[in-house]
Design goal:
The structure holds 2 protein chains of 2 kinds.
Chain A (H helix, E strand, L loop, with lengths): L2 E6 L9 H12 E2 L4 E7 L6 H5 L3 E9 L7 E5 L18 H10 L6 E7 L12 H4 L2 H14 L5 E2 L4
Parallel strand pairs in A: 1-3, 1-4, 4-6
Antiparallel strand pairs in A: 2-7, 5-6
Chain B lengths: L2 E7 L7 E8 L2 E9 L5 H5 L7 H5 L7 H16 L5 H27 L6 H4 L4 H11 L7 H16 L20 H28 L9 E2 L2 E2 L13 H32 L13 E2 L3 E3 L7 E3 L1 E4 L8 E4 L5 H6 E4 L37 E4 L8 H10 L3 H18 L11 H31 L15 E10 L2 E10 L2 E8 L1 H6 L10 H6 L11 H9 L11 E2 L6 E5 L1
Antiparallel strand pairs in B: 1-2, 1-17, 2-3, 4-5, 6-9, 7-8, 9-10, 11-12, 13-14, 14-15
Classes of the chains: A alpha/beta, B alpha+beta.
């Protein structure tokens, strides 16, 4: 049973990259067994099909737009992960849900999908997160560890390993 | 009375690409293309180490990561006049070739075919009749009754599940949909197969790029792939043989499925050769260098003026050609930046935001307007295919005529090269480019194997940065057209960086003298049957493979609509 922890987002657009930053923070602080992959998916679209297809469970860490105030954290599971999306004028608009739909058509969709998300505050150009969003990173790291625990995996703090 | 139709994809942040059309008497009479995201890579890169620029540059875009990585290292190498070892050229050529082939397949089947193919109609098709149709145009082994019946069931189950996902943007049942149920099922089944083949091609990028999804092997001065036929951690014979197998498998799909499908759909929609002509100055550049200096290329190209492939063609000769370097300028007269200095060369380019509201006659876009020797130009696969054609590239000429002959046979009348200057022509050209790139991939694989067999395992030349200021440019013929990066380096640090992305050329606003861009021109006279379902406008825009919504990747639980279309 393999698990993919996938950080998503554009690190050039401030809080858009919060998923990648949280995944990096998790990777820096925790070690996981070999059957768990922790990957920076960045802004990639169709390029990630093989990566996702080769795992049984997907934990995506991403910036999310839910209508809630900025810095709100959400955990979405199963049907809560939006199953259908808007029209596409460009392949760049291929979101996670589109990838999952493609995999479903190929009978290779993961058994479970969890999205750990944070509502962004600022999406301007820049490598830094907004301070309010930065402050949520430790909590997002905890949410990743808890989600792994739900799948029967115990992450070990790096200092202790 | 004229209506204003606004097509604005609901995007995850402030819109990306918006098109406004004035529609009168069932056709477009005026058009404005506007990019709604401003270009900030310049600011992020200022002061950074030029050797790291590609790492950031590849994050500009979610699809073209490798494209920006390659172009960025080329720009810095050009500034340093640094030669690149042959192995590194071949490996880069294979990465870019594989990426482009992957991208063209995805664009045709997964991002634009549904503008012409009605999935709902495919459910009504007879699988036996579909097999008969498909077998009449290709000997592809998967054109069987069984395959089509299975595909139909799969589509039905998918639609029944209510999760339309990737099919959600289709204008099903629109009066401009013309294919028979069988032709729709054939294309839909190939859509499913294409999902698999595009992935195989992407594996080639992943193996050579050392990691997926972002490649890791690029470096100013070469690539970081160590070559050692016996060590498992490097590029081995086993990996190279697997790459060859993947290339061959995808090649079969291109020749037996993609090309026949494009020719068949093109024949059904032959009227679309009359729409979407747009700007017929075409700019493309040579790519796949065959020497260390970037002076000899597998795929030649250049600038074509006024669609004249014979008299209007000027070749771009190489990575150092001043004809290219001096020709590019960008205007911000109609863009939301401080201007007043006239069009500027990218080395001197400025990116200082100055937002006004949308002004039809004033500023209305975040995109700058590039020109080549003061002329608007179209870029993309069509520009590249015509550039290779005009350069006398034989395989391009062969495949252009092969596709046009097939279309002519379907139609029972002669279709010439002129038909390519159109909405459907851009799809045909993309398919031609895809097969030409596949053949060149095989060639690059052979060149790499032969060079390694000679005992050459060099993949990297170390860059050394001088004191003082140097400048350079790099280009690459990317899936959506010619991409260029321009860098000014001072004492080993980046002083200015400008990325002129392909869609900038096509989707820019009016320029300094009011000339319209390729999008704006291509939409003129485009028919619009139903104002609030402007499928025809979408068709013409998609034929360019628009690329502006770069790199935004937000999960959205709030908005579930498709294109937001407003009729004012």
């Amino acid at each position: 049973m393999s698990i993919l922890v996938l950080g998503l987002g554009n690190i050039l657009l401030m809080d858009e990259g919060v998923g990648v930053r949280a995944m990096e923070a998790f990777d820096a602080a925790w070690t996981v067994p070999d059957h768990v992959s922790v990957v920076d998916g960045g802004t990639c679209g169709m390029d990630m099909l093989d990566l996702i297809a080769s795992h049984d469970h997907l934990i995506a860490v991403d910036a999310v737009k839910t209508g809630a105030p900025p810095a709100t954290l959400v955990v979405l599971r199963g049907d809560e992960v939006p199953a259908y999306f808007k029209g596409k004028l460009s392949p760049h608009q291929l979101g996670l849900s589109d990838l999952l739909a493609s995999l479903k058509l190929q009978d290779e969709a993961p058994q479970s999908v969890t999205v750990i998300g944070c509502v962004p505050m600022a999406l301007g150009t820049g490598l830094m997160l907004s301070p309010e969003i930065e402050a949520q990173i430790p909590e997002m790291v905890t949410l990743i560890a808890e989600e792994l625990e739900r799948h029967g995996v115990t992450a070990v703090p790096r200092a202790a390993s | 009375m004229a209506q204003r139709v606004v097509v604005d994809p609901v995007t995850r942040i402030e819109g990306h690409l918006r098109v406004d059309c004035e529609v009168d008497g069932g056709k477009v009479t005026k058009a404005w293309a506007s990019g709604q995201m401003w270009r900030g890579i310049e600011l992020i890169l200022q002061g950074k180490d030029p050797r790291d620029a590609w790492v950031f540059a590849q994050r500009i875009c979610g699809v073209c990561t490798t494209v920006h990585a390659i172009t960025s290292v080329r720009a810095v190498e050009n500034a340093l006049k640094l030669e690149v070892p042959l192995n590194a050229q071949y490996i880069r050529n294979m990465i870019q070739g594989a990426h482009n082939v992957h991208d063209h397949i995805v664009h045709f089947y997964h991002l634009s075919a549904l503008d012409f193919v009605d999935i709902a109609s495919a459910l009504k098709a007879d699988p036996a009749a579909t097999a008969k149709l498909a077998q009449s145009i290709s000997d592809w082994p998967k054109n069987s009754v069984q395959e089509f019946a299975t595909a139909q069931k799969k589509l039905q189950a998918f639609i029944n599940s209510g999760q339309l996902g990737i099919f959600g943007s289709g204008y099903w049942g629109h009066p401009a949909m013309k294919l028979t149920p069988e032709a729709n099922l054939m294309a839909a089944a190939h859509y499913l197969q294409a999902l698999d083949y595009q992935r195989r091609m992407n594996k080639v990028v992943a193996i050579l790029g050392s990691k997926t999804p972002h490649i890791q092997n690029m470096a100013v001065g070469g690539v970081t792939n160590p070559i050692n036929m016996n060590s498992q951690s490097t590029l081995t014979l086993e990996k190279l043989m697997y790459i060859k197998q993947l290339i061959d498998e995808v090649g079969d799909f291109i020749t037996a499925v993609y090309l026949p499908d494009v020719a068949a759909i093109g024949a059904f929609y032959a009227d679309w050769t009359q729409y979407g002509r747009g700007v017929v100055n075409y700019l493309s550049i040579p790519d796949m260098p065959l020497d260390t200096k970037g002076t000899v290329f597998a795929l030649p190209a250049g600038f074509i003026e006024n669609g004249d492939l014979a008299k209007g063609f000027t070749p771009v000769k190489g990575f150092n050609d001043p004809y290219f370097e001096k020709g590019v300028k960008e205007s911000v007269k109609h863009s939301w930046y401080q201007g007043g200095k006239g069009p500027l060369h990218p080395y001197d380019g400025e990116t200082i935001p100055q937002f006004t509201d949308w002004q039809d006659e004033g500023k209305y876009s975040w995109i700058k307007s590039p020109t080549f020797y003061d002329k608007r130009a179209q870029v993309g696969p069509l520009a590249n295919v015509l550039g290779m054609y005009a350069s006398g590239h034989q395989r391009t000429q062969y495949w252009v005529h092969a596709v046009l002959d097939t279309v002519s046979k379907h139609l029972g009348s002669k279709v010439g090269v002129d038909a390519l200057h159109s909405t459907i022509g851009r799809h045909a050209a993309r398919a031609v480019r895809c097969v030409v790139l596949y053949e060149e991939l095989q060639n690059q694989w052979k060149l790499l194997m032969e060079n390694i067999a000679k005992g050459d395992t060099t993949t990297f030349n170390k860059p050394v940065f001088p004191k003082g200021e140097i400048r350079g440019f790099g280009f690459h013929e990317a899936p959506r057209g010619m991409l260029s990066h321009w860098v000014v380096i001072e004492n080993g640090k980046i002083k200015n960086y400008q990325a002129v992305v392909p869609t900038t050329w096509n989707a820019g606003p009016r320029d300094e003298t009011g000339q319209i861009s390729a999008y704006e021109a291509a939409l003129l006279d485009n028919p619009v049957a139903v104002a609030d379902q402007p499928l025809e406008i979408i068709r013409t825009l998609h034929s360019f493979d628009p690329c502006l919504a770069c790199a935004v990747h937000l999960t959205d639980t709030e908005t579930k609509s498709h294109y937001q279309v407003k009729v004012l």
